[in-house]
Fold this sequence. Notes:
Blueprint: H1 3-12, E1 19-22, H2 28-40, E2 45-49, H3 70-82, E3 84-85, E4 92-99, E5 105-113, E6 121-122, E7 128-131, E8 134-137, H4 140-149, H5 170-179, H6 186-192, E9 196-199, E10 202-205, H7 207-213, H8 217-222, E11 230-234, E12 253-255, H9 259-275, E13 278-279, E14 284-286, H10 292-304, E15 314-318, E16 322-328, H11 350-356, H12 370-380, E17 387-391, E18 398-404, H13 410-422, H14 427-434, H15 438-450, E19 455-457, E20 465-467, H16 483-495, H17 502-513, E21 522-524
Parallel strand pairs: 1-2, 11-15
Antiparallel strand pairs: 2-5, 3-6, 4-5, 7-8, 9-10, 11-12, 13-14, 14-21, 15-16, 16-18, 17-18, 19-20
Helix pairs in contact: 2-3, 7-11, 9-10, 10-12, 13-16, 14-15
Amino acid sequence: MTVPDIIHDLLDREEGTRFETKRVSGKMVGKALEAICAFSNTDGGLLVLGMEDPDKAKSIDRLYGVSENPVAVDELKRKTVTHFLPPIVAPEVFRFATANRVGKKDEIVVFQISPGKKVHSILDDGTWTRAEKQNREMTAAEISELSYKRGVLSAESQTVDIDISLLNTDVFSQYCLERGLTRGTLEQKLETIGLAKRERGKCRPTKAAVLLFANSPSDLLALSGSRAGVRVFHYSGVTIDPSENPNLRKRPKSLTGPIYELIEMATNYVMDEITVGFEMASGFVAKHRYPKRVIKEAITNAVIYRDYRFPTDVNIRIFNDRIEVESPGDFPANITPATIETAGSSPRNPSLVNHLREFPRPPNVDAGEGVPMMFHAMKEQGLYPPNYSVQHQSAVPTVMVRLLNEERPAAWEMVSAFIESHGAISNKDLRKITGLDTLRASRLLKSWTDKGLLVMRGTGKKHVTYQKPNAEPSDIDLFSDLPEQREKFIEAVHDLGCDEDESTFDEIVKKVAKTAPPRQEAERAPTAKGKQKK
């Protein structure tokens, strides 16, 4: 993408939740800081300096350039470091040489702002958010909600009014033995490790303490309006029957207990359920092929990273073709479904996570290795990667991970690499890199769309493209071939035995396309007489 292309692209964009333009004259610095603060507190965005508001001028008449006030640009760069509390992720700054509206040499400066990890305020100028085409100061309630969403505040630290003696359990004794906590009363021990607080002369445990040590945390926390259990639903088929007779294989299983034990109970229950496999319409018995460590990691993350403000359990749904693990609350910090594989650890409940590590065989080590392991293990097993999404349809937001019980064809690696490099793929692109005809390419794209691996964008046959459902919004991308995208592309094609040369890539992809996909592991289901069905 050339500089003139970038300038024209910026001129063509409309201001919105992730894009704003400003001249550098007058009170630009203060207003620009508000925009940067707003972008940091939402989904990030682009701030273009030296370009007039589209409502005040059109086309190249908007190109005033930064020569109007170059000192203001330097001041803004300095204040992005000194005037935000807490500090924001340092914006990337791009300078593009261009002719201004009167034909003189000038520059346009673009600040690319990433979503913040915390809730950010401007020194002596409040806390701002982005609303449509403008910035507005946040209310106290909005700041509180964003603080919980990003993990700045956590429900785990709230105290609960329950009898503290209910925490004097075998699990607590085991924890104390492992930590070497041998002196003091129950209250003193909990206060020492930060899991209880003195309020009005009474020692009250935190939610984290109840979750860690109570025999039935969900029942105790229900008294204060939240829940902490796990429910498992096992369905026949691949959908939920909404009729009066749901297609459940058995009654839903409700599990509760100290989360150290709850994670193990839920993992073992799910593994027992899927061990028997399921009978297909053809009479074959197909096997679930998920690695146990992937299932355990999905359950562990759902339990320890969920938002304990909400009166909702973790829900696990088992279908013939997938397992879904749904956890109450949004992603903490600035993690998104698109970045979760590489984002590292940003615990919403740090106290819970830290204390869990002190048990003899902790389910987590909080080194950020869990989710990457899931992606790697699914790939090693020949299955599709974990599919993360955020659900906002109900009053309680949830994070869901889907694990597909289906062999992924080698062609998926090529398509995935192409999308990582180009952002999207069309039917024409798929035909070009695989040699498939239009009908077969359409069926493949529809199959991936039905599985939730791709989403369709655009209308009309000539304008339809397919993206990964969790792709980051593209309106802050300045270039079509970002370095990190190209690195992912190169890594993927190297895994498949070719190099980044396009002709070699195309040749390998065509070979892969001609390879029949592996059959799902199955065995004949025995009849009542012990014979195989034919």
